[in-house]
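Researcher: Please predict.
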Amino acid sequence: MHPTLLSLFVARADSRALRIAQRAGAVAFVTVLTAIAAQISIPLPFTPVPFTFQPMIVLLGAAVLGSRLGSTSQVLYLALGIAGLPVFAASPGLPQGAARLVGPTAGYLLSYPLAAFAAGWLAERGFDRRYFPSVIAMACGLTIVFAGGVAWLSLALPLGIRGALAVGFTPFVVADVLKLLVAAGCMPALWWLVDRPNTSRN
Protein backbone atom coordinates (compact mmCIF):
# COMPACT_ATOMS: atom_id res chain seq x y z
CA MET A 1 0.00 0.00 0.00
CA HIS A 2 1.28 3.48 -0.90
CA PRO A 3 1.38 6.41 1.53
CA THR A 4 -1.04 9.25 0.98
CA LEU A 5 0.12 12.85 1.04
CA LEU A 6 -1.23 13.22 4.56
CA SER A 7 0.44 10.07 5.87
CA LEU A 8 3.74 11.19 4.35
CA PHE A 9 3.43 14.57 6.05
CA VAL A 10 2.31 13.13 9.39
CA ALA A 11 5.18 10.64 9.44
CA ARG A 12 7.58 13.56 9.90
CA ALA A 13 5.96 14.58 13.20
CA ASP A 14 8.03 14.12 16.35
CA SER A 15 5.33 12.74 18.62
CA ARG A 16 2.22 10.58 18.52
CA ALA A 17 0.11 13.42 19.92
CA LEU A 18 1.24 15.72 17.12
CA ARG A 19 0.46 13.08 14.51
CA ILE A 20 -3.05 12.66 15.92
CA ALA A 21 -3.55 16.43 15.94
CA GLN A 22 -2.38 16.72 12.34
CA ARG A 23 -4.74 13.99 11.17
CA ALA A 24 -7.67 15.54 13.05
CA GLY A 25 -6.84 18.98 11.65
CA ALA A 26 -6.67 17.64 8.10
CA VAL A 27 -10.03 15.89 8.45
CA ALA A 28 -11.60 19.06 9.85
CA PHE A 29 -10.06 21.13 7.05
CA VAL A 30 -11.60 18.93 4.34
CA THR A 31 -14.94 19.03 6.17
CA VAL A 32 -14.84 22.83 6.20
CA LEU A 33 -13.86 22.93 2.51
CA THR A 34 -16.83 20.69 1.70
CA ALA A 35 -19.14 23.07 3.55
CA ILE A 36 -17.64 26.09 1.77
CA ALA A 37 -18.04 24.39 -1.61
CA ALA A 38 -21.73 23.85 -0.82
CA GLN A 39 -22.21 27.60 -0.52
CA ILE A 40 -20.96 28.10 -4.07
CA SER A 41 -24.10 26.66 -5.59
CA ILE A 42 -26.11 27.54 -8.68
CA PRO A 43 -29.82 26.61 -8.61
CA LEU A 44 -31.16 25.36 -11.92
CA PRO A 45 -34.81 25.94 -12.90
CA PHE A 46 -35.37 22.49 -14.40
CA THR A 47 -34.03 20.37 -11.52
CA PRO A 48 -34.24 20.36 -7.71
CA VAL A 49 -30.50 19.60 -7.58
CA PRO A 50 -28.20 22.65 -7.53
CA PHE A 51 -24.82 22.81 -9.26
CA THR A 52 -21.99 22.80 -6.67
CA PHE A 53 -18.28 22.07 -6.44
CA GLN A 54 -18.70 19.64 -3.55
CA PRO A 55 -17.97 16.39 -5.40
CA MET A 56 -14.53 17.59 -6.43
CA ILE A 57 -13.67 18.61 -2.86
CA VAL A 58 -14.89 15.23 -1.62
CA LEU A 59 -12.68 13.37 -4.10
CA LEU A 60 -9.59 15.56 -3.79
CA GLY A 61 -9.85 15.50 -0.02
CA ALA A 62 -10.11 11.73 -0.03
CA ALA A 63 -7.06 11.41 -2.27
CA VAL A 64 -5.03 13.45 0.22
CA LEU A 65 -6.43 11.85 3.39
CA GLY A 66 -6.91 8.24 2.31
CA SER A 67 -9.97 6.02 2.57
CA ARG A 68 -10.78 6.04 6.29
CA LEU A 69 -10.00 9.67 7.04
CA GLY A 70 -11.54 10.84 3.77
CA SER A 71 -14.76 9.02 4.61
CA THR A 72 -14.60 10.37 8.16
CA SER A 73 -14.41 13.95 6.87
CA GLN A 74 -17.67 13.44 5.00
CA VAL A 75 -19.41 11.70 7.91
CA LEU A 76 -18.43 14.72 10.00
CA TYR A 77 -19.81 17.04 7.31
CA LEU A 78 -23.16 15.22 7.36
CA ALA A 79 -23.20 15.24 11.17
CA LEU A 80 -22.72 19.01 11.22
CA GLY A 81 -25.55 19.38 8.73
CA ILE A 82 -27.86 17.13 10.73
CA ALA A 83 -27.07 19.22 13.81
CA GLY A 84 -28.45 22.24 11.99
CA LEU A 85 -25.30 24.10 11.06
CA PRO A 86 -25.59 25.91 7.69
CA VAL A 87 -23.24 23.60 5.80
CA PHE A 88 -25.60 22.39 3.08
CA ALA A 89 -26.25 24.21 -0.19
CA ALA A 90 -28.98 26.85 -0.16
CA SER A 91 -32.44 25.50 -0.95
CA PRO A 92 -35.69 27.43 -1.46
CA GLY A 93 -37.75 24.46 -0.31
CA LEU A 94 -35.86 22.89 2.57
CA PRO A 95 -34.25 24.45 5.65
CA GLN A 96 -30.82 23.50 6.89
CA GLY A 97 -30.77 20.44 9.11
CA ALA A 98 -31.73 16.77 9.09
CA ALA A 99 -34.56 17.37 6.60
CA ARG A 100 -31.96 17.58 3.83
CA LEU A 101 -31.36 13.87 4.22
CA VAL A 102 -34.87 13.16 3.03
CA GLY A 103 -34.92 15.89 0.36
CA PRO A 104 -34.04 15.70 -3.35
CA THR A 105 -30.28 15.88 -2.77
CA ALA A 106 -30.18 13.26 0.00
CA GLY A 107 -28.79 10.55 -2.27
CA TYR A 108 -25.85 12.71 -3.28
CA LEU A 109 -25.09 13.77 0.28
CA LEU A 110 -25.29 10.27 1.72
CA SER A 111 -23.01 8.96 -1.03
CA TYR A 112 -20.16 11.31 -0.07
CA PRO A 113 -18.61 9.03 2.60
CA LEU A 114 -18.71 6.05 0.21
CA ALA A 115 -17.29 8.06 -2.68
CA ALA A 116 -14.52 9.40 -0.45
CA PHE A 117 -13.69 5.90 0.78
CA ALA A 118 -13.44 4.59 -2.79
CA ALA A 119 -11.27 7.45 -4.07
CA GLY A 120 -9.08 7.28 -0.96
CA TRP A 121 -8.71 3.51 -1.23
CA LEU A 122 -7.45 3.86 -4.79
CA ALA A 123 -5.11 6.68 -3.75
CA GLU A 124 -3.64 4.34 -1.13
CA ARG A 125 -2.79 2.02 -4.00
CA GLY A 126 -0.91 4.68 -5.94
CA PHE A 127 -3.66 5.82 -8.30
CA ASP A 128 -3.07 9.46 -7.35
CA ARG A 129 0.59 9.45 -8.49
CA ARG A 130 -0.08 9.76 -12.24
CA TYR A 131 -2.72 11.58 -14.22
CA PHE A 132 -4.74 8.82 -15.91
CA PRO A 133 -4.92 6.56 -12.84
CA SER A 134 -5.94 9.67 -10.88
CA VAL A 135 -8.76 10.22 -13.38
CA ILE A 136 -9.88 6.61 -12.86
CA ALA A 137 -9.86 6.97 -9.05
CA MET A 138 -11.91 10.15 -9.14
CA ALA A 139 -14.25 8.78 -11.79
CA CYS A 140 -15.02 5.85 -9.49
CA GLY A 141 -15.89 8.26 -6.69
CA LEU A 142 -17.98 10.47 -8.96
CA THR A 143 -19.85 7.41 -10.25
CA ILE A 144 -20.82 6.58 -6.67
CA VAL A 145 -22.08 10.13 -6.12
CA PHE A 146 -24.21 10.06 -9.27
CA ALA A 147 -25.46 6.55 -8.56
CA GLY A 148 -26.58 7.53 -5.08
CA GLY A 149 -28.20 10.74 -6.26
CA VAL A 150 -30.04 9.23 -9.20
CA ALA A 151 -31.19 6.19 -7.23
CA TRP A 152 -32.65 8.42 -4.52
CA LEU A 153 -34.41 10.69 -7.02
CA SER A 154 -35.88 7.72 -8.87
CA LEU A 155 -37.32 6.13 -5.72
CA ALA A 156 -38.02 8.92 -3.26
CA LEU A 157 -39.68 11.63 -5.36
CA PRO A 158 -40.49 9.33 -7.32
CA LEU A 159 -39.35 10.15 -10.82
CA GLY A 160 -38.46 6.74 -12.20
CA ILE A 161 -35.03 6.07 -13.59
CA ARG A 162 -35.50 8.12 -16.77
CA GLY A 163 -36.83 11.13 -14.91
CA ALA A 164 -34.07 10.86 -12.31
CA LEU A 165 -31.39 10.77 -15.01
CA ALA A 166 -32.97 13.79 -16.71
CA VAL A 167 -32.84 15.96 -13.59
CA GLY A 168 -29.99 14.41 -11.60
CA PHE A 169 -27.41 13.28 -14.13
CA THR A 170 -27.73 14.76 -17.60
CA PRO A 171 -27.56 18.46 -16.56
CA PHE A 172 -24.38 17.89 -14.53
CA VAL A 173 -22.32 15.14 -16.12
CA VAL A 174 -20.40 17.21 -18.68
CA ALA A 175 -19.44 19.94 -16.20
CA ASP A 176 -18.55 17.40 -13.52
CA VAL A 177 -16.38 15.39 -15.90
CA LEU A 178 -14.55 18.57 -16.92
CA LYS A 179 -14.01 19.45 -13.25
CA LEU A 180 -12.81 15.91 -12.63
CA LEU A 181 -10.25 16.13 -15.44
CA VAL A 182 -8.86 19.30 -13.91
CA ALA A 183 -8.95 17.99 -10.33
CA ALA A 184 -7.24 14.73 -11.33
CA GLY A 185 -4.19 16.72 -12.35
CA CYS A 186 -3.82 18.22 -8.88
CA MET A 187 -2.63 15.06 -7.17
CA PRO A 188 0.21 14.15 -9.59
CA ALA A 189 1.29 17.80 -9.46
CA LEU A 190 1.37 17.75 -5.66
CA TRP A 191 3.32 14.49 -5.66
CA TRP A 192 5.77 15.98 -8.14
CA LEU A 193 6.35 18.90 -5.76
CA VAL A 194 6.80 16.52 -2.83
CA ASP A 195 9.23 14.27 -4.72
CA ARG A 196 11.16 17.12 -6.34
CA PRO A 197 13.54 17.79 -3.41
CA ASN A 198 14.49 14.09 -3.32
CA THR A 199 15.06 14.06 -7.07
CA SER A 200 17.21 17.18 -7.00
CA ARG A 201 19.42 15.76 -4.21
CA ASN A 202 20.04 12.66 -6.29
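Model: The chain has one domain: 5-196.
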